[in-house]
């Protein structure tokens, strides 16, 4: 769900307060939102996947001003805990500018040195067709510590508006681009108005007309009544008996074998991927989320070979002796994105899993067929190096629990070059209480010819991505001119409808962590410069400022 930044107050709990080792930003103590996910805390980040496909160059996220009782530090670390500044000029202290050169999905360490209320003024700039484009400026407000959060809750109680939609309004994805909760974005660099109705055009760029100024003004007058755009299945022809229960089925059908026999698997040399599951007709299916296209696709894990080449080659530091001696050559898919290396995470955010299961998903490492050792682990915080171990074939854990509605990135380490086939069984519990399991195999070409590995792997093609099932359309309802249909099938078209049945555009906003499609988007305006009192406490994936800079054009 996307929200205007001014409508959400970001709450940093007392549990984020920790001692910071000497030599790290914010020492000796601060409120830390770590680069790796803690389900109890916010997990802020930014994403620019749509940049290149919409004609933009690199993106500059400009934090123009920070007001608050202390300092705010922002920095990253590699998988072995070496810190690195993210701001231009090498500083870790905000304000400053983050230059995102490649389409990326990024998380970082955030440190607030004192409790209290902080406000950040943010915009973004990029260049398209020789023109510099700048978004509107927005304010991101944080409440750090229990006292500031209590004040925010008091504000919420006094307000008639809520920053987040009711849970039962979601059509399957309550997750952010990175994690469950909210997914906040305020601006767009293609000139499209924001979710709130404000224009963001500059330097000759004009709005695309999805909501004009008059609508924004009328929306501001009725900000307390927020409308949402929900996906609705509309019959395009009489559904066959087999498809009559379509509205109850999962958002994305299972992968179907349609490729010619013997076709090689495809090769991924970079890009964002998540190993997750889908629930289809009561059956669990192992699936790989491929974010290299928009919307993202969920495919059979064996249909893609992860090419882990020279750019993934590094030397093991101390503290990893359970898999490699210090100084030994290893190949690494890290917890942070590296150009030229596939970035592999885990994900329980598919709409069918969010809506159809309860509790976590268990991942069990069944076997690793390959020439060397493999270990998967989370990064430690502040020099910890290796954090929680996920699973490996070196005598460590073989099972890992992925919390509900979660997206996380561990480190994947391989010790020798060659073809690795990693088989994992995932288990979930349906809302009816039934245990369901699925087994999938993911292939890695580590320091070797990926084409040869792909040729040896029979591809299973991508699933036919359909839009999420939601409320069925009203009797007699049909697709209308201007509807942006998604996931058409022979029997149904999925279109956008407001709660009162009016057409709306499902495609007008950037993607989410589930499959790159927005499930429910706020389309009403908010009062200009008004601060909403909605509080986001935990499990929050933040798309900072204008980090998703390009909305897909349609028509």
UniProtKB/TrEMBL annotation:
<keyword id="KW-0812">Transmembrane</keyword>
<dbReference type="InterPro" id="IPR022435">
    <property type="entry name" value="Surface-anchored_actinobac"/>
</dbReference>
<feature type="transmembrane region" description="Helical">
    <location>
        <begin position="528"/>
        <end position="550"/>
    </location>
</feature>
<keyword id="KW-0472">Membrane</keyword>
<feature type="compositionally biased region" description="Low complexity">
    <location>
        <begin position="463"/>
        <end position="477"/>
    </location>
</feature>
<feature type="region of interest" description="Disordered">
    <location>
        <begin position="463"/>
        <end position="513"/>
    </location>
</feature>
<feature type="region of interest" description="Disordered">
    <location>
        <begin position="185"/>
        <end position="214"/>
    </location>
</feature>
<protein>
    <recommendedName>
        <fullName>ABC transporter-associated repeat protein</fullName>
    </recommendedName>
</protein>
<keyword id="KW-1133">Transmembrane helix</keyword>
<dbReference type="InterPro" id="IPR022395">
    <property type="entry name" value="CHP03773_ABC_transptr-like"/>
</dbReference>
<feature type="region of interest" description="Disordered">
    <location>
        <begin position="236"/>
        <end position="257"/>
    </location>
</feature>
């Amino acid at each position: 769900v996307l929200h205007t930044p001014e409508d959400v107050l970001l709450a940093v709990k007392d549990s984020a307060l920790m001692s910071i080792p000497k030599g790290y930003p914010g020492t000796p103590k601060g409120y830390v939102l770590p680069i790796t996910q803690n389900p109890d805390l916010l997990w802020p980040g930014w994403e620019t996947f749509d940049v290149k496909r919409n004609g933009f160059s690199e993106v500059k996220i400009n934090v123009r001003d920070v007001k608050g009782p202390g300092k705010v530090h922002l920095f990253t670390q590699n998988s072995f805990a070496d810190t690195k500044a993210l701001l231009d000029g090498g500083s870790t202290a905000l304000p400053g500018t983050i230059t995102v050169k490649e389409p990326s999905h990024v998380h970082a360490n955030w440190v607030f040195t004192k409790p209290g209320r902080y406000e950040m003024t943010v915009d973004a700039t990029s260049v398209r067709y020789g023109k510099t484009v700048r978004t509107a400026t927005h304010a991101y407000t944080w409440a750090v510590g229990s006292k500031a959060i209590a004040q925010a809750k008091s504000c919420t109680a006094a307000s008639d508006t809520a920053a987040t939609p009711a849970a039962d309004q979601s059509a399957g994805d309550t997750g952010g681009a990175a994690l469950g909760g909210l997914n906040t974005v305020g601006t767009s660099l293609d000139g499209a108005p924001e979710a709130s109705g404000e224009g963001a055009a500059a330097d000759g760029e004009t709005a695309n007309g999805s909501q004009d100024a008059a609508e924004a003004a009328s929306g501001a007058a009725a900000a307390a009544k927020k409308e949402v755009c929900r996906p609705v299945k509309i019959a395009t022809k009489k559904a066959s008996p087999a498809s009559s229960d379509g509205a109850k089925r999962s958002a994305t059908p299972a992968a179907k074998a349609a490729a010619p026999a013997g076709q090689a698997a495809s090769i991924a040399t970079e890009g964002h991927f998540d190993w997750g599951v889908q629930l289809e007709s009561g059956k669990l299916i192992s699936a790989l989320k491929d974010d290299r296209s928009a919307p993202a696709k969920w495919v059979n894990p064996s249909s893609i070979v992860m090419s882990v080449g020279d750019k993934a080659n590094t030397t093991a530091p101390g503290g990893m002796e359970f898999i490699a001696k210090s100084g030994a050559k290893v190949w690494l898919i890290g917890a942070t994105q590296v150009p030229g290396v596939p970035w592999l995470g885990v994900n329980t955010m598919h709409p069918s899993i969010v809506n159809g299961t309860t509790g976590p998903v268990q991942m069990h490492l069944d076997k690793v067929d390959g020439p060397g050792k493999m270990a998967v682990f989370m990064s430690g915080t502040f020099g910890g190096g290796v954090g929680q171990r996920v699973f490996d074939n070196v005598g460590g854990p073989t099972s890992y629990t992925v919390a509900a509605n979660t997206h996380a990135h561990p480190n994947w380490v391989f010790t020798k070059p060659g073809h690795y086939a990693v088989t994992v069984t995932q288990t979930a519990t349906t809302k009816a209480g039934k245990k369901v399991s699925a087994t999938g195999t993911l292939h890695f070409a580590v320091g070797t010819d990926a084409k040869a590995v792909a040729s040896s792997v029979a591809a299973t093609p991508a699933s036919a991505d359909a839009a999420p099932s939601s409320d069925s359309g009203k009797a007699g309802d049909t697709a209308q001119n201007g509807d942006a249909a998604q996931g058409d099938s022979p029997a149904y078209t999925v279109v956008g409808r407001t709660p009162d049945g009016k057409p709306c555009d499902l495609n007008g906003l950037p993607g989410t962590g589930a499959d790159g499609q927005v499930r429910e988007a706020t389309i009403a305006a908010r009062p200009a410069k008004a601060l909403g009192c909605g509080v986001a406490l935990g499990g929050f994936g933040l798309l900072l400022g204008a980090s998703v800079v390009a909305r897909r054009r349609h028509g």
